[in-house]
Amino acid sequence: MVKKEQLLRLENISVNFGGVHALKDVSLSFDEGEIVAVMGPNGAGKSTVLKAIFGLVETAQGKVLWHEKEIKPIPHEVVKLGISFVPQGRRVFKYLTVKENLELGGVTIKNKNILKERMEEVLDLFPALRTKMKERTGNLSGGQQQMVAIARGLITDPKILLLDEPSLGLSPKIVKEVFEKIKEINEKRKMAIVVVEHNLKSLLPITNKAYILDKGVLVHTGVGAEILKDNILEKVFLAKM
Ligand code: ADP
Ligand code: MG
User: In the structure, which protein residues have their CB atom closer than 6 angstroms to any atom of ligand 1?
Assistant: First the structure.
């Protein structure tokens, strides 16, 4: 197998919020074209990992490397490198149309023709949104709003897409559709995707690698099948009870 190139790496990252150690000496790496799960109980530090990559929290220690070169993450700079972040809680603009939401994902794209092309590429991935472009996003179902949030993150044609709890508040059937879409995006666009989830076994089979965090510490790194076989998620979650 050809070794995939490393895209992004966190090296010994620590993040503190006052007295709370949200991340303690955490190292994670994401290679080109792979789907990686970051899992763990509430408060484990999952969202903080994504925020550290995107420059939304201050790190007390450690480095972020892009193609093995250290970067100092600042949101708009990170977008230009090819990193896209879809935050937790479907932060779509409910009073704007679907089209306006998608256009906002492309504010860094100055060339109108390129923006138009990107919009078409994204709508090819989400054909169900074509007929909804003029609708107010708040009128769409939860699953459709999540699709808008992911589509918006794709407008910049990132090399890596960071998704924070894309399943939140969705029914199992819709969660399955969201994960199928994630797999499709990964395959068609050869894009690396990081999916943060609380405790969702159905995510593991589509991942190449999974990291498990607990109380800000990386407690396990492995492949999905092993994590399922060894009941590692149960062990981490039971320890919380
Ligand atoms: P997860 O996404 O795994 O649920 P987070 O990364 O959001 O966890 O949070 C990790 C820890 O850091 C938690 O204890 C949380 O309460 C704390 N934390 C997160 N953001 C802040 C913040 N802005 N201020 C203070 N504490 C925070
Ligand atoms: Mg979170």
Answer: 17, 20, 22, 40, 42-48
